[in-house]
Every structure is written in C-alpha cells, then in structure tokens.
Amino acid sequence: MSAKTETIFKILKVFSWIVFIGLSIKAGALIFNYIFAWFNPAATHNLYDGLDLSALYQSNEIYYQSILSLLIILSISKAHVFYLIIQIQSKLNLVKPFSEGVSELILKISYSTFFIGILGWFTREFSRWLEKRGYELGSVGGYWEDYQAFFMMAGIIFIIAQIFKKGLELQNENDLTV
Fold it and tell me: What is the reported pTM?
C-alpha cells in the first residue's frame, strides 16, 4: 500500500471518529434533555441546538415524548452507522480485503441506513400529521429531512455488500486452489 493511500485511510479514520463523536454528543444531549425535561419542563424550550418543542409539550405531552423519542432513535442510529464504519476501518486488511467480518459489517450498515430511512420517513409523516392538527413543532424537520438519502445509501451499500460477499467467495476459492 502506498504512503498516499495510507494517509488517506488515516484521514478517513479521523474523520469517521469526529463524526461519530459529534453524533454521539447530539444523541446524548437529546437523551439528557429528554430526561431533564421530566423534572424541569422549561428545558423543552431548548432541547438541543435551538430545538424548541415547548409548544408541543404544553399541548400534548404524549406527542412531545413520541417526537422526541423518534429524534433520539434517529440520532443514535446515525451514530451507530459511524461506529460500524469505524469497526470496518479497524478490521480492513488491504492485503486480503475480503473477510467475513468486514462483509457482515457492510451488510449491517446497509440495514442500519435502511432503518434510518424508514424511521426518518415515518417521523416526517407523523410530524406532518401533528402539524395538520394544529400542533407547533418548530424547527424539528431538520432531524429527518435527509431520509431519502439514507434510502439511496442503503441500496448502494447493499449492492456493495453483495459484491464484497462474492469477492470473499472468490478469495476463499483462490486460497483453496493455490
């Protein structure tokens, strides 16, 4: 492996860690503020990064908890995808790139991204339903507006997982014939 390729892999690994940590902080802040709001409802005015669900909380606490729970699950799921990417980066061996562990991780990423797409779509539809009934949600839409990209990403990663699986079969077959 060339020095340039090694440098690129190191940069990608650092980038993946930064994104993972950022998404984990976001999920952790949402969880913390969700719990904190049980004891101090004023916390619903700024849950995370300007997210204000206080009007929804005052109107209907069950819908508030539903929306916030969906946002937390979305945030955790996005962080989980980057955790899987970090695992791939630590297991990947470019001398023998096709391994069972990496193949399984790629497939898990495709399933996770598909789940994020479905959950994002469901959350968007649920929020539209709430807004049609007069509930104010503020700027909550930014948490799932990228759900279509996750559907597309899931499809592409699933295809890559299948190619990787075939490459693993060919690599194992080649090892047996040598």
Answer: 0.87
pLDDT digits (tens, 9 = 90+) for 124-159: 999 999 989 998 887 777 777 888 999 999 999 999
Q: Structural domain boundaries of the chain?
A: 3-177
Q: Which of 118, 85, 87, 100 is nearest to 169 (CA)?
A: 100
Burial class (CB in 10 A: 0-12, 13-18, 19+), 66: middle
- Annotate 64-123 with three-state secondary structure: HHHHHHHHHHHHHHHHHHHHHHHHHHHHCCCCCCCCHHHHHHHHHHHHHHHHHHHHHHHH
**Which residues, in sequence order, are CB contacts of 30 under 8 Å at separation 6+?**
47, 48, 68, 71, 72, 75
Counting beta carbons within 10 angstroms of the beta carbon of residue 154, is it exposed (0 to 12), middle (13 to 18) or buried (19 or more)?
buried
